[in-house]
Design brief:
Layout (H helix, E strand, L loop, with lengths): L1 H20 L15 H46 L9 H12 L10 E7 L2 H8 L1 H18 L5 E6 L2 E6 L4 H15 L3 E3 L2 E3 L3 E7 L6 H17 L5 E3 L2 H20 L5 E10 L5 E12 L3 E3 L1 H11 L2 H23 L5 E5 L2 H4 L4 H11 L7 E6 H6 L1 H14 L2 E7 L6 H6 L4 E4 L1 H4 L6 H16 L3 E5 L4 H9 L4 E3 L9 H10 L10 H7 L5
Helix pairs in contact: 1-2, 4-5, 5-6, 7-8, 8-9, 10-12, 10-19, 12-14
Amino acid sequence: MAEEFVDKRLDALVEGIVRLSSGDLSARMEVSPARDSMDAVISGVNLLAEELEVFYEELEQRVRDRTASLHAAQVELERMAMYDSLTGLPNRTLLRRRIDDETLPAAVRSQPAALILLDLDAFKAVNDSLGHSAGDQVLIEVGRRLESTVRETDTVARLGGDEFAILLPQTTDEIACDIAERILHALRPAMIVAETSIHILASIGVRCGEAGQSGEDMMRDADTAMYVAKNLGRSNVQVFHPAMLHATHERFTILEELRQAIPAGQLRVYYQPLVSLRNSTIIGAEALVRWEHPDRGLLYPDNFIGIAEESGLVVDIGGWMIDAVAAQLGNWGDVLDGRDFAVRINLSTAESRAPGLADLIDRALAEHAVPTDRFIVEITETSLMTDPEASSANLLELRELGVGVEIDDFGTGYSSISYLRKLPAQAVKMDSSLIEDIATDPRQRKFIAAVLQLIEAAGLISIAEGVETADQSRILTELGCCYGQGYFFGRPMLAADMAAVITGGLGATAGGGDPEADRAIGNLRA
Ligand code: C2E
Ligand code: CA
Ligand code: CA
């Protein structure tokens, strides 16, 4: 009887152990009323099973936790690969993916998407003058303003640097242009960064989608349009047009030809007189580069200086100008004897911060026995802001040599008078855009009067450029402006004509076939 009882429990125990070992950790065996050693073994196995079950549950929980955090890390990695860490906006990769989603044949919709590319103007100046963290803040704020300008279904992306893009699914040309204008408008209000009020402008290219167009082409075309916008001046919108591709190709050709222009002797220096407004005497000239192109005729800087700047070739052109002007000043020798006469040359941004600039000028002047005070460099505020330390060092060296320094295009950049006082400059040239309406707009006249007073208070000489009429000249004289330059006094001319003007006064040019006069009519820029 007892044997049979033991056997039954043994069977149950064996069966239980088999279930446990096969993974069924919930298996338990019943303990008999006998409470003997067999029952002790059964309780022991039950306890073990209990512990194993708890242990397994914990293990499973840990595996679930680990899997969840691995998944989170994976999601984060994907996010990092797809989003810009500074602004949190989608990056180039994600944008490309979304453009492909819109343009792949399978996704073609009745209305294709439009793409807007946007590049901030003069952002580098913000970074250089206010520091990188200020620059970062500007980028974040731009991202925020862009996002608030478009719909949720649109993608605002940061492509890197100061370049942004917006993908507008199913958008007509008209709406895309509207949005581009709205963006310019949204960027307009000043941003306060590092306690400075900053105005951000942007150049915008729009590519309106076409059926069957690839995402890659769409990006390239929007980029081309943006490039055209940049070159047309700041703060404007350009819609892609196939002719623009031709223009890009054209720029490339011009660059290749320009490389040959210096060795081939195709560059010319034109001189435009500067006049004292007090006594109408000629006090100097500005040297302006021209390119006598064998096929295209006489080209003006607008046609090639921008291209030269982008490629760095502008430094070679500048070096050539320095030599050519030094040689000309040397040649004029007798013509200039006893006269107050200095030639100004324009420094590009790249030149203004190039190490050894003062040395280069010093050597060129020495070679032609030209006194250093016959030579003046013109530098724009924007150039100065781009790399204040390098350019200030160069300007100080030039000043020590006795070479003059003047600020060009004053009134077009981030002008600040307190900043003017710190510059190693002797004169400030007011941009022609400030002078334009002086004879017709009394408010502009008051404004110029104030600017002139400030320039004087900073201990600097004032120069007005772009003086085209007798009225403008008279008003500027009355307001106390020191010097004037412009078509009213004389157009840019070749050295021989300039020599005649220096000795014989204005109106003494050789005349005949003056290409500068044609320029206003014919316009070789086209
Ligand atoms: P900028 O330095 O402001 O030079 C003055 C420009 O105004 C010249 O144009 C000149 O011909 C033009 N101008 C003179 N008087 C008048 C006037 O009464 N009315 C109007 N509307 N315009 C007038 P240009 O020669 O075409 O030069 C354009 C720009 O190209 C210059 O502007 C300067 O920034 C740049 N540039 C010229 N030569 C050089 C150079 O050798 N090196 C560099 N880096 N830049 C140069
Ligand atoms: Ca100039
Ligand atoms: Ca100027």
